[in-house]
Amino acid sequence: MKIGLIGDIHANLPALQAVLQHANALGVEHFLNIGDVVGYNAFPEQVIQTIRQNPVTSILGNYDRKVIQFPQKGKKWQKEKPGLKVKAFRWAYQQLSSESLAYLQALPEQLEVHLDGLSILLTHGSPAARNEYLTPQTPIQRLLELGELTCAQIILCGHSHIPFARQAGKKVFINTGSIGRPDDGDPRASYAVLLHENDRLKINHYRIPYDIHWAAQAIRDQHLPEEFAQMVLSGRSLDWIEDHWDGVQKEAD
Fold first, then answer.
1. Distance from C-alpha of 85 to C-alpha of 2, rounded to nearest angstrom
2. Residues 188-201: pLDDT tens digits?
3. Which phi-psi region, left, alpha or beta, contains residue 54 (left: φ > 0; alpha: ψ -120 to 50)?
4. What burial class does residue 1 get, using C-beta atoms within 10 Å of its C-beta: 0-12 exposed, 13-18 middle, 19+ buried?
């Protein structure tokens, strides 16, 4: 069985469409999504609709949570959080239909699924915390500790936007990378495919090209901050863009 491992789509519809097309051509039968379907990009409603129209099992990401909590916490965040991030929360919330908001609100933060004889824990950050960043550099001792928190064979995560597959004891940790908002300087969409065959696991990570200029222009058409468009074009985080803003502007000129 081929299982698509996706996450951190962040409202990037053209990137998601490219990944789904690639995965379908490979014969992927089901998708597991570690959350953060909305945020920063211009298509939050369309991305949720697309997810719901495909064989996708999803959990809630930390960004998704902030969007659905915006009516209750938005005023507080405006005093505490960087302005661009609060603007992104507000705009995403305003674009979502009541049906899509209800869909997000119903998603669990973690979920253990059983597919083709495999037990897989879906978690956005780690089994211990939705905001924990797991990367290729995370100490093996930490992965061993996290593995003790679940009976699942495979721990699927995201949040750091850095793809990897690592074994810790008898557990396998897989980070999907980010479909819609990579942070490693490569703007192509990132996802993985898990193949389970003859009791063996094979994990392939893919980087999929898509029309990043369409995605960036859609951000501009919605009058969202130019920093969000530059994130898509450069494959960098908002923090990186803000730290290098003078250089980014010169390159754009």
1. 36
2. 999 999 998 888 89
3. beta
4. middle
For residue range 142-166, list pLDDT tens digits in order: 999 999 999 999 999 999 999 999 9
CA distance 196 to 117: 9
